[in-house]
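User: Structure with copper (II) ion, tokens only please.
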Amino acid sequence: MPRAKARIRILSLFTLLFCSETALGELGINFPTPAAPVAQEIYDVHMLTMRITTVLLIIVFSFILYSIFFHRKSRGYQADQHFHETWFGNWSWIFVPAMVLAVDLTIANSAQKTLEKIWVVPKDEKLMDLKVIGHQWWWEFEYLDHDIKVESRYTPEEKAGDLYLREVDKRLVLPTNTRIRFLHTSADVLHAFWVPELGFKKDAIPGYVTETWAEITREGVFRGQCAELCGTWHSRMPLVVEAVSQEQFNSWVEEQKTLKVAALAEASADKVWSKEDLFEKGKGLYNSKCSACHQITGLGLPPAFPALKGSPIATGSISEHLKIVLNGKEGTAMQPWNSLNYLEIASIITYERNAWGNDTGDVVQPADVNAAR
Ligand SMILES: [Cu+2]
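Assistant:
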């Protein structure tokens, strides 16, 4: 950070008391402006604490500065040897800690109420259920009430620019003014869902489902990230929530359903595709789903993630290639890709067998995948 900017930030910390809170949020020295009631409460507890500490800071520092100046040696000040015998000297041992405790309890009291609100999901018929599944290293969102699934992956640096590690290909679209129950789980290791504007941070634990809730009160784009160290590319798990009005959300849901039907029709196993079409489709899919490990260049990151360029499997027998993509390899990070349809697998495999100088010339059709599965 440039020095001048650092100085502005430190100065602004002391103006927390007097400045507009939103402006400070935008400067990046306070929490972002909350977008949910619980987040607002957390924010208020934080501001209460900041205010109390600032007042204490001013009182304590005034005492110190006063003493340093008026009780300095050159003024001939003599330390008071009888302070402890005065009324104040006797009783301050009791009432100063008591005052501190009162301040602590004031803060704890509001914090306790807020925590309870986060923990207790309201029993509400109209709750919208959203299942959040953490994967190494992407997020999956299932809209349980709408029968929609969204896979959300980070946008590579070339495309994301300044928003690198803050932007994803598919955002988590959520309606405002609707109570949403978040059900968190993980497909592999610990992850954690964290979007500061929504107020909560919740662990996603394999084999368990943890729940929280939020009601988003304003439209906007809210960015967060995985908040549990989950391996090499923990940093590549940004979360982007796009909060929209109920009407916009409904039309988004319709759009997703149409897309899903179209994808199913397109992927029907009997259609025969040209090599170019498969290659193009495969490139897009590979770059979003496989490149985290095998890299866009196909060079992988040996020894953890093998290169596919010139790999014995990607240039060898097609059936072995199909097998590892369909079934994965147990005990390794290579998972079975059963979330992909025939067409998607056929195009990824065609791409891998013809990209990066893997000039096998092979074309794999959806029907071949169907037969192998
Ligand atoms: Cu993670």
